[in-house]
Amino acid sequence: MQNISLYKKFFPEINGDVKEVKEDYFYKTPEKFPVKFETSIPTLEMISKILEEVLLIEESEAVAYVGFQKLSRAEAVHDRYHLIADKIKKVYMFGEKDKLLKPHSDIKFVYLPPKHDLIKEWFLIVDHPKRKSMLVAYDLDGFGKYEDEKKRNFIGFKTNNPLLVKKGIKLIKTIL
Questions:
Q1: Which end of the chain is less congested by CB atoms within 10 angstroms, N or C?
Q2: Banded model confidence at residue 94, pLDDT cuts 50, 70, 90
Q3: Residue ranges of the domains in the chain?
Q4: What does the alpha-carbon distance between residue 46 and residue 23 come to, in Å, rounded to a whole number?
Q5: How far apart are alpha carbons 93 and 91 in whole angstroms?
Q6: Are 148 and 134 in contact (CB under 8 A)?
Q7: 120-157 b/e with 16+ CB inside 10 Å = b?
Q8: 38: which residues sit within 8 A by CB, 6+ positions away?
Q9: In 3-state terms, what secondary structure has residue 52?
Q10: Alpha-carbon distance 130 to 68, whole Å?
Q11: Are residues 53 and 163 in contact, defined by beta-carbon separation less than 8 angstroms?
Q12: At 58, is the secondary structure helix, strand, or coil?
């Protein structure tokens, strides 16, 4: 499997300074994307949930590419991803195979080897016919640094630029 990194490839292409963001940043800030940020897990969960909710609104030809670092990290939201998979064309779920999750005909698990760069990344790419988005965050701390894993810090970006999202999709497809 080719070793790729969405963060290393696209973070340098995003203009602007890195902003420290909290959970309510994307609700309160009418800033245009793309945005570079540094944050912790609760904010990433909130941003991801917003993107996931859009996928649940109506049936579509959307495809989602989602990286959880370790598949055990997807366990808490796996039922939601089953609902998403019922609504969209396909979900590709990436992560280290540290847990077997309940299968779904429209969820394809992409098991990453232990040293793969994507294991250090949390990502959600939405390829929707009318809108595209890409959230990518690089784990600055790794697992095991904090007793409360939600304190882990990430640096990343969020963009709705269709050309950049298409490049991200093209890159991620190289390992499918």
A1: C
A2: very high
A3: 6-173
A4: 7
A5: 6
A6: no
A7: bbbbbbbbbeeebbbbbbbbeeeeeeeeeeeebbbbbb
A8: 18, 19, 20, 21, 140, 153, 154, 155
A9: helix
A10: 25
A11: no
A12: coil
- From CA 80, how far away is CA 114, in angstroms rounded? 26
Selected residue with higher pLDDT from 174 and 32: 174
* Bond preceding residue 114 cis, omega within 30 of 0: no
For 32, phi and psi rounded to 5 degrees?
Answer: -80, 150
Count the neighbouring beta carbons within 10 Å of the beta carbon of residue 161: 17
Residue with tokens 């996931």: 52
Tokens for 149?
């894993």
pLDDT in tens, 98-113: 999 999 999 999 999 9
CATH for 6-173, options being 2.40.170.20, 3.90.1170.50, 3.30.870.10, 1.10.3720.10: 3.30.870.10
- How many other C-beta atoms lie within 10 A of the C-beta of residue 113? 11
Give the CA dihedral 134, 61, 119, 23, nearest 10 degrees.
Answer: 50
